[in-house]
Amino acid sequence: MQSLKYKIIGLTGGIGSGKTFVANIFKRLGIPVFNADYEAKKIMHQSLDLKNKIKRAFGDEIYKDNQLQKKLLSKLIFNNEKKLILLNSLVHPYVFKRFNQWCLNSQSPILLKESAILFESNSDRKCDKVICVVASKFIRIDRVMKRDNVDKNHVQSIISSQISQQEKVKKSDYLINNNESELILPQIIGIINHIKSTII
Questions:
Q1: pLDDT in tens, 107-145
Q2: How many other CB atoms sit within 10 Å of the CB of residue 182?
Q3: From residue 119, how far is each of 30, 130, 142 by CA, in Å?
Q4: Which residues are paired to 35 by β-bridges?
Q5: Which CATH code fits 7-197?
Q6: Which pairs count as long-range contacts for 56-61, CB under 8 Å and 24+ apart, including other chains?
Q7: Which residues sit opposite 186 in a β-bridge?
Q8: Which sign, positive or negative, has the C-alpha torsion 88, 36, 115, 155?
Q9: CA nearest 123: which of 158, 87, 99, 90?
Q10: H or E element, residue 68
C-alpha cells in the first residue's frame, strides 16, 4: 500500500471566533478545506439511510416533505446532551467516510478539516496537528449577535454549551488570534510554513 504523503490539519474554534473566515484564507492560499459542519448538514439532507436513522431516533416529524426541520431538531438537542450525543453518533460515521474519500482524491500535501466540534467528535485523533482560532468573549458575542440577529443571552447560552475556548487551546498545536488586534495572514503563513517543514 502506498504511503500517504499529506498532513491532515484540524481547524476549530468556538462560535464567533472567525473559524470559517480563517478557513477561507487557507483556501485562497491553495490549501484544500473540508468543512465538516457543512458536509454533515448536506448528508442529513441527501442520505436516505441516515434520514431513516434520524427519524427512528427523533420521530418522523423531524423531516417534513423530505426536508429536515432544523428548528425542531435544534430545540430537541439544545441543552440536552444525551440527544446531542445521539445525533452526533448517527451523523459522524457518514462525515468520516466522506472525509476519508475526499482525502484520497486530494493532491495537496496539506489538507484542512474545519469543524466546530473537532474535539467533541474525536476528529482531532485523525489529525496530525490542530489549529484553534481564538477571540475574546466580548468580540465573539458581538459578532454572532450581528451575524445571526440574536440577543446576547442566546449567544452566551450557546458558548456555555460548547467546550470552553481554554480547553480547545490546551488541546491544540497552533493558535490564530482573531481579536482584530493582530493580522491574520502572517499567522496563517507562519503555520503553513512550519507544517511544510515537517513534511518529508
A1: 899 999 999 999 988 999 999 999 999 999 999 999 999
A2: 10
A3: 25, 10, 25
A4: 114
A5: 3.40.50.300
A6: 57/86, 57/87, 57/90, 58/83, 58/87
A7: none
A8: negative
A9: 99
A10: strand 67-68
